[in-house]
Amino acid sequence: MTYLVVCIPHDMEDVPALLESWAAAGTSDTIVLNTARCRLETPMDKGDDVPILPSLSTLLSAEETESRTVLTTVADDAALARVVAAAQQALGDLSQPNTGILVALPVALALGLARRA
Predict the structure, then answer these.
(1) Which of 34, 73, 74, 93 has its CA 20 to 30 A from that of 85?
(2) Measured between alpha carbons, how far is 32 from 100 in angstroms, rounded to an integer?
(3) Which helix (H) or strand (E) holds 8?
(4) How many Cβ atoms sit within 10 Å of the Cβ of residue 70?
(5) pTM higher than 0.90 for the full model?
(6) Sign of CA dihedral 106, 103, 37, 66
(7) Could you tell me if 117 and 20 are in contact, meaning their C-beta atoms sit under 8 angstroms apart?
(8) Can you list the domains of the chain with their CATH numbers?
(9) Residue 94 DSSP label
(10) For residue range 21-67, what is the model confidence (pLDDT) as tens digits?
(11) Which residues, at least 6 apart from 53, have a Cβ–Cβ distance to it below 8 Å?
């Protein structure tokens, strides 16, 4: 089964190491997107009082951080395991905070992945 692997490193400076480790794990193409991480805060998070009739902008304020989202596809479970291991090698233990996020999604249809020789 083909998988789409999405990885968002916590630190943008880790992207080159991630790309190198994924290439060593056998990925042929990756896409790097400029993205922004948003953390929504409410007045309650900040310890502020909430007005009786608050507006949405009063209730939510976003802290935005520039980031990179890295995408690749892998052909099977073995390739997925290699890519996940490579990401953990580059970014650290992804089960720990402030390392990054990795998601692998099964792909129902994938066209255009084969390359000409």
Answers:
(1) 34
(2) 15
(3) strand 3-9
(4) 23
(5) no
(6) negative
(7) no
(8) 3-106 (3.30.70.120)
(9) T
(10) 999 999 989 999 999 877 666 555 555 555 555 555 555 556 778 99
(11) none
- In this structure, how many other beta carbons lie within 10 angstroms of the beta carbon of residue 7? 27
Rounded to an integer, what distance in angstroms lies between the CA atom of residue 62 and that of residue 42?
Answer: 9
Q: What tokens appear for 73 in the block?
A: 């596809």
Residue type, 97: P
DSSP line for 14-79: GHHHHHHHHHHTT---EEEEEEEEEEEE-HHHHTPPPPSS--HHHH-EEEEEEEEEEEEEESSHHH
Hey, CA dihedral for 9, 103, 71, 73, is it positive or negative?
positive
